[in-house]
Specification:
flat; 42% strand; 3 strands; alpha+beta; 1 helix
Length: 50
């Protein structure tokens, strides 16, 4: 399964950038974001286009 991870702006919470990763990569990205206080929005990636 693949997930879209969006990095959110610290001030207003709007998405700054996004990436699509496989499930095995999500934990590492979340751990890195937590270590620096970064806000993320994670959702299943849209697979209908592939």
């Amino acid at each position: 399964m693949r997930f879209e991870i969006m990095r959110l702006d610290d001030v207003d919470g709007t998405p700054v950038d996004s990436t699509v990763v496989d499930a095995a990569s999500v934990n590492g990205i979340v751990q890195q974001a937590a270590a620096i206080g970064q806000r993320l929005w994670i959702r299943p990636a849209d697979t209908s286009a592939s």
